[in-house]
Every structure is written in structure tokens, then in C-alpha cells.
Amino acid sequence: MNIKEFFGKFVSKYILLNLMAMAILVALIVFGVKYGLDEYTRHGEEIEVPDLYSMTFLQAKELLELNGMTVLVSDSGHNKKMAAGCVLAQNPKAGSHVKSGRIIYVTLNSPSSPTFAIPDIIDNSSYREAEAKLTAMGFRLLAPKYIAGEKDWVYGVVSRGRNLGVGDQVSIDVPLQLVVGNGGYEGNDVSIDYKDADYMGNSFEEDVFEEVGAGGATESDPMVDDFEEVKMD
After folding, report:
1. CA-based nearest residue to 71, from 84, 89, 44, 83
2. In Å, how far are 3, 71, 106 from 68, measured between CA atoms?
3. Phi, psi of 44 (to 5 degrees)
4. Most CB atoms closer than 10 Å: which of 30, 155, 205, 223?
5. What confidence tens digit (pLDDT) does each residue in 108-135 have?
6. How far apart are CA 61 and CA 86, in angstroms?
7. φ, ψ dihedrals at 207, nearest 5°
8. CA separation (Å) from 62 to 8, 58, 66?
9. pTM, full prediction
């Protein structure tokens, strides 16, 4: 076999036809991938997201569907100045450009303010720790009430004259007041009106004797006599 015959086998009609077929197939694949992906991803298509703020859910749904988008409620909030059920926020935001079929997530206004459980801060945290936890939850705090006890230690939480316990559900709109130790007995704020008779573990009888003892009274003191008469009754 000479050189001409050897190379002649590589340029035979059969091999050339196969090479042409492969080239055509590769070209079709490249063409199909390019234009197929453009069609699948809607390349170049852009729809501006409308502003849904303050719309009712039905209004927002109709507007989005008219523009080829869908809506889904993702969360709820509360704004006293706005009607219940209206849109408070949206994602993507208004003015964004998306493709048709995109889901727009909205936050709707709740008819009532949310409630949260009081965390485990009573007799378990300092004033700064309790303040940080409550404000992070969204509560508004009034000036603390100080009582005799360990300095800056939280002994209770009061809301509208009622002592709260761990886990009690409270509206976020209701202000809270922390009952905090003043580090001693001088300057004790005795104006706190606790509804629990044994608040902080002291009975009513122990509190009275503590006050009487602080004034230097004895068993013959009229205050003690009056207290004994009340007990007997």
C-alpha cells in the first residue's frame, strides 16, 4: 500500500459524509441551545412590578395577574392607621423588573396588634438584659419602679397595674414597666400597688411587722395592737 492509497481511505465518501453529518448535528445543537434557552428564560422580557402599598389583597391580586404575575401572602403586620387586610410591604419592591409568572410576596395588615409572650426575665436577669430583650421584641418600656432588693435586678413586670408572669401574652401596643431592685432600703418607692399579697415571697403580716419594726415600735405600740385586733377578727 502506497501513501496515496493510505490517505485515500481517510478522504473516502463514507468518512466525508459522516463528518458532514456530525458538523450539521453540532450546529443544530448549538442553535437549539442558544434559542431554546432564550425562549425558556424569556431573555429580554421585563415587567415592572407595580406599587401595591395600601391596596387590598384582591386589588393587588387583580393588578398582578393582569400583568402576568401572581401574589402570595408571606407575613402579617399591624399599622393602626391603615385598614385591615391592606398591603404593608412587598417583595420584590415596586419598580423592580421581573419576568412574567414571577411570584410577588406581600405582607398584609392584621386587624389587631400582635401579642408576644413575656420572656423569662423575672428574677432571672438584670435590668439591662430585660430591657434589651423586651425592646428587641418591640415593647415600649416606661420608667422602672424601684423597690428594696438587689441593685438593678428585675423582680417583676407590670402592665396597666397588673403583675405579669413568664409566658403571659401581651399586646405589643401595651407599655410595660419593670420592677427593679434599688440596692438598698432607702428611697424605696412604696407607691407600687401590687395586687398579689405575697409578691416577692413576703406575706402581708411580714410586711406590716417590717414597717412597724423600722419605726421602732414595740408590742405595746398602738399600731401593733390594731394589727393584732385585725388578725383576731
Report:
1. 89
2. 68, 10, 16
3. 90, -10
4. 155
5. 998 888 889 999 999 999 999 999 999 9
6. 12
7. -65, -40
8. 71, 6, 6
9. 0.46
